[in-house]
Amino acid sequence: MNRTVLRRVAAPCIATLALGLAVSACGAGNEDTGSKTSNLSGTIKGAGSSAQEAAMKAWRAGFQTDNPKVTVNYDPSGSGAGVEQFNAGAIDFAASDAALDPTKGEVDAAKARCGGKNALEVPSYVSPIAVVYKLNGVDKLNLSAKTIADIFSGKVTKWNDAEIAADNSGVTLPSTAITTVHRGDESGTTKNFTDYLSKAGEGAWKYDPDKVWPLKSGEAATGTSGVIAAIKEGSIGYADESQAGDLSKANIKVGDAFTAPSAEGAAKALEVSPIDDTRTEGDLAIKVDRTTTEAGAYPLFLASYVIACPTYDAAKLDLVKGFLKYVVSTAGQQAAASNAGSAPLPASLQTKAAAIIDTIAAK
């Protein structure tokens, strides 16, 4: 697969010249929703990303409305659990906020689950990860990647530390102790967050990107909703921005400016992030550029995936294929943007993803 850079304009209307196409996500692109017929019937099961939960609700509702005899069940058990369930054959598709990791044996396990054929993996959901916090009297906070790394590694332990104060001139910071909150389950959001700290943290983060949080310090919580619920006065954590609710969200340093989390910012960061050309055919994993200085870009984001087998039995084939086609379609992406605040996939990437899903065949 050739190295390809995704080019897009801010959501919801996204124009792109990447991947050899020049079309707009607002009018052209993949219009096939995968649900042209109401003759489909049956049940399929998926599990994984809790970050995708709100988007999955929209996708399930849209697809089931068009196909009233179909039931799509989804368990937001976390990316790690979803991949494990998929590889064990317990579900029909998985959703993960991190691409299958060949160094962890996930690619080989998925291949074995799929009868010796490489699993298919396509982007389905793009969303900023917010650094969420709760600090009385501090509604706006600027943090560099290095400072975030120092906070979560335990080097910075007070809110009025000089390192935080340096980027927040004029803000009265309390001497309150900082409580960090992280995911206690295997999480693709954690892998994206630690990837950002590793690449943008100026050497302050000493750990490799991973779905498993590397430190014993701080408070552990299960799932995105668990992290949000655990943020109390003096706490700081990380979560999909769409589920941050009323919590305060830090601006992160990009170049010489500080940028708030937004779908538009994630879209701009996606512009400079290439497809990983080391992956197998049918795998559209993205190499996220965490160090971009593009104005308005927000490089702390997740590109989340749906994972499926290239073949299914007759009872599941059209259901899985139809649902996943809907997920990556213009209608599906707009539904997710409305319900979850995500950035719709560029039309060119929709087309690439749909073409891969189209290859799903009968066993």
TrEMBL record:
GO terms for molecular function: phosphate ion binding. Gene3D superfamilies: Periplasmic binding protein-like II. Residues 37-329 form the PBP domain. Keywords: Phosphate transport, Signal, Transport. PROSITE patterns: PROKAR_LIPOPROTEIN. InterPro entries: ABC_phos-bd_PstS, PBP_domain, Phosphate-bind_PstS. One of its GO terms (biological process) is phosphate ion transmembrane transport. The keyword Lipid metabolism does not apply. Residues 1-28 form the signal peptide. The keyword Transport applies. Phosphate binds at S49, S50, A51, S79, D97, S187, G188, T189. It comes from the Bacteria. One of its GO terms (cellular component) is ATP-binding cassette (ABC) transporter complex. PANTHER family: PHOSPHATE-BINDING PROTEIN PSTS. Belongs to the PstS family. This is Phosphate-binding protein. It comes from Nocardioides marmorisolisilvae.
